[in-house]
Design goal:
Blueprint: H1 2-7, E1 9-10, E2 15-16, E3 53-56, E4 62-65, E5 69-76, E6 79-84, E7 90-100, E8 103-112, E9 118-126, E10 138-141, E11 145-148
Antiparallel strand pairs: 1-2, 3-4, 3-11, 5-6, 6-10, 7-8, 8-9, 9-10
Length: about 150
């Protein structure tokens, strides 16, 4: 009989009723729209709420702390971009050589781990001595990020 009780699940309220009568108010109102539960948004890293941060404009995954910002004077393929020392919640594609405004570099596209949007790139190798400071650094285009927490 216990097995029978588990089979008689009341689907509208997701409780085990055991086949008994449903109490008034246990079911949603007739005209009420069905409640959709969204999948939880989980990111690999959450940055402290007390710090100014940059997040993905598409899914709000944290990307970088303001303290990791090196320069605001970079140009991405879709407009202005920022250079960061380190970032979180991003994946890296394969490295390839590209001729950028400042010369030949080996770069790998970076994308948001949550929504998979391409955000910018990571400098893997700079071929010119004057550009070596960019190695291991990250470019995120302004059009793909938003400022969060503590900006006035």
């Amino acid at each position: 009989t216990a097995a029978l009780g588990t089979l008689l699940r009341c689907f509208p309220c997701q409780r085990l009723c055991g086949g008994g009568a449903v109490t008034p108010g246990a079911l949603p109102a007739a005209g009420a729209p069905p409640r959709r539960s969204l999948p939880p948004r989980t990111f690999r890293s959450y940055l402290p709420r007390s710090h100014r941060t940059y997040s993905c404009v598409h899914c709000r995954a944290h990307l970088a702390r303001h303290e990791e910002l090196i320069s605001k004077s970079f140009q991405g393929s879709h407009g202005r971009a920022y250079l960061f020392n380190s970032v979180v919640n991003v994946g890296c594609g394969p490295a390839e050589q590209r001729l950028l405004l400042t010369g030949l570099h080996s770069v790998a596209d970076i994308f948001c781990q949550s929504c998979k949007t391409t955000l910018g790139w990571k400098y893997e190798h700079a071929f010119e001595t004057s550009q070596k400071y960019k190695e291991g650094k990250f470019i995120i285009e302004m059009s793909h990020m938003v400022k969060d927490n503590g900006w006035d």
